[in-house]
Amino acid sequence: MRTTRAALAAVASAVTLLGLCAAPVAADPPQPPRHITGKVIRGGADGRPHELFCPAPFQAYSGGFTIKARKGARFIEEPADLLESRPNDTATGWIVAVRKGQLLPSPHPHRAHPRIEPADLVVHVVCTQDMPTHGM
Protein backbone atom coordinates (compact mmCIF):
# COMPACT_ATOMS: atom_id res chain seq x y z
CA MET A 1 0.00 0.00 0.00
CA ARG A 2 2.83 2.30 0.90
CA THR A 3 4.49 1.66 -2.46
CA THR A 4 1.26 2.45 -4.28
CA ARG A 5 0.87 5.74 -2.40
CA ALA A 6 4.49 6.66 -3.09
CA ALA A 7 4.05 5.82 -6.76
CA LEU A 8 0.84 7.90 -6.96
CA ALA A 9 2.57 10.80 -5.21
CA ALA A 10 5.49 10.58 -7.66
CA VAL A 11 3.10 10.51 -10.63
CA ALA A 12 1.17 13.49 -9.24
CA SER A 13 4.43 15.40 -8.75
CA ALA A 14 5.53 14.60 -12.31
CA VAL A 15 2.18 15.71 -13.74
CA THR A 16 2.38 18.96 -11.77
CA LEU A 17 5.94 19.49 -12.93
CA LEU A 18 4.99 18.81 -16.55
CA GLY A 19 2.09 21.21 -16.21
CA LEU A 20 4.46 23.92 -15.01
CA CYS A 21 6.88 23.26 -17.86
CA ALA A 22 4.12 23.33 -20.43
CA ALA A 23 2.60 26.55 -19.11
CA PRO A 24 2.59 29.25 -21.76
CA VAL A 25 5.42 31.74 -21.47
CA ALA A 26 4.36 35.36 -21.55
CA ALA A 27 5.41 36.75 -24.92
CA ASP A 28 6.86 40.19 -25.36
CA PRO A 29 4.16 42.66 -26.31
CA PRO A 30 4.02 43.24 -30.07
CA GLN A 31 5.97 46.22 -31.31
CA PRO A 32 4.13 48.93 -33.25
CA PRO A 33 4.85 49.13 -36.99
CA ARG A 34 8.04 50.96 -37.90
CA HIS A 35 8.57 53.30 -40.83
CA ILE A 36 12.12 52.93 -42.09
CA THR A 37 13.52 55.57 -44.45
CA GLY A 38 16.50 54.58 -46.55
CA LYS A 39 19.43 56.78 -47.49
CA VAL A 40 19.31 58.98 -50.56
CA ILE A 41 20.44 56.92 -53.55
CA ARG A 42 22.11 59.38 -55.89
CA GLY A 43 20.77 58.71 -59.41
CA GLY A 44 18.63 55.89 -57.99
CA ALA A 45 15.58 56.68 -60.19
CA ASP A 46 17.37 54.81 -62.96
CA GLY A 47 14.83 52.01 -63.49
CA ARG A 48 16.90 49.42 -61.61
CA PRO A 49 15.53 47.72 -58.48
CA HIS A 50 16.67 49.12 -55.12
CA GLU A 51 15.90 47.34 -51.84
CA LEU A 52 15.49 48.43 -48.21
CA PHE A 53 15.36 45.81 -45.44
CA CYS A 54 13.43 45.63 -42.18
CA PRO A 55 15.35 44.96 -38.96
CA ALA A 56 14.89 41.42 -37.60
CA PRO A 57 12.36 40.09 -36.54
CA PHE A 58 10.17 42.54 -38.47
CA GLN A 59 8.67 41.88 -41.90
CA ALA A 60 7.75 44.28 -44.69
CA TYR A 61 4.10 45.26 -44.62
CA SER A 62 4.15 48.15 -47.09
CA GLY A 63 6.56 50.46 -48.80
CA GLY A 64 7.11 53.21 -51.30
CA PHE A 65 9.57 55.82 -52.46
CA THR A 66 10.38 59.50 -52.81
CA ILE A 67 12.18 60.98 -55.80
CA LYS A 68 14.22 64.14 -55.43
CA ALA A 69 15.93 66.52 -57.80
CA ARG A 70 19.37 67.66 -56.69
CA LYS A 71 20.03 71.21 -55.64
CA GLY A 72 19.93 73.43 -58.72
CA ALA A 73 18.28 70.69 -60.83
CA ARG A 74 14.67 70.25 -61.92
CA PHE A 75 12.63 67.25 -63.00
CA ILE A 76 12.06 66.59 -66.69
CA GLU A 77 8.45 67.07 -67.76
CA GLU A 78 7.62 63.41 -68.42
CA PRO A 79 5.98 61.57 -65.51
CA ALA A 80 7.92 59.01 -63.50
CA ASP A 81 7.74 55.38 -64.61
CA LEU A 82 7.04 53.08 -61.67
CA LEU A 83 8.35 49.68 -62.71
CA GLU A 84 8.23 47.84 -59.39
CA SER A 85 7.12 48.48 -55.81
CA ARG A 86 6.70 45.28 -53.81
CA PRO A 87 7.97 43.21 -50.90
CA ASN A 88 10.94 40.97 -51.59
CA ASP A 89 10.40 37.21 -51.84
CA THR A 90 10.95 36.64 -48.09
CA ALA A 91 8.93 39.72 -47.00
CA THR A 92 11.99 41.08 -45.17
CA GLY A 93 12.30 44.24 -47.26
CA TRP A 94 10.76 46.42 -49.98
CA ILE A 95 11.91 46.67 -53.60
CA VAL A 96 11.40 49.78 -55.73
CA ALA A 97 12.30 50.38 -59.35
CA VAL A 98 11.35 53.79 -60.73
CA ARG A 99 12.59 55.90 -63.61
CA LYS A 100 12.58 59.70 -63.47
CA GLY A 101 14.99 62.13 -65.06
CA GLN A 102 16.29 65.45 -63.83
CA LEU A 103 17.90 68.33 -65.71
CA LEU A 104 21.16 69.36 -64.12
CA PRO A 105 22.57 72.77 -64.93
CA SER A 106 25.62 72.78 -67.15
CA PRO A 107 28.84 72.94 -65.14
CA HIS A 108 30.15 75.38 -67.76
CA PRO A 109 28.27 78.71 -67.74
CA HIS A 110 29.06 79.37 -71.42
CA ARG A 111 27.30 76.12 -72.43
CA ALA A 112 23.51 76.25 -72.44
CA HIS A 113 23.01 72.45 -72.58
CA PRO A 114 21.91 70.94 -69.29
CA ARG A 115 22.65 67.28 -68.56
CA ILE A 116 19.86 64.75 -68.04
CA GLU A 117 20.51 62.20 -65.32
CA PRO A 118 18.32 59.95 -63.17
CA ALA A 119 16.80 61.70 -60.16
CA ASP A 120 17.75 60.73 -56.64
CA LEU A 121 15.67 58.08 -54.87
CA VAL A 122 14.72 57.30 -51.28
CA VAL A 123 13.07 53.95 -50.53
CA HIS A 124 10.63 53.62 -47.61
CA VAL A 125 9.36 50.46 -45.90
CA VAL A 126 6.79 49.90 -43.14
CA CYS A 127 7.84 46.95 -41.00
CA THR A 128 5.69 44.98 -38.55
CA GLN A 129 6.04 41.93 -36.34
CA ASP A 130 2.45 40.80 -36.59
CA MET A 131 1.48 40.20 -40.19
CA PRO A 132 -2.25 40.74 -40.77
CA THR A 133 -4.14 37.69 -41.99
CA HIS A 134 -6.52 39.62 -44.30
CA GLY A 135 -9.46 37.37 -43.55
CA MET A 136 -7.58 34.06 -43.44
Automatic annotation (TrEMBL):
Keywords, in A-Z order: Signal
Span of the signal peptide: 1-27
Protein name: Secreted protein
Species whose genome carries this gene: Streptomyces litmocidini
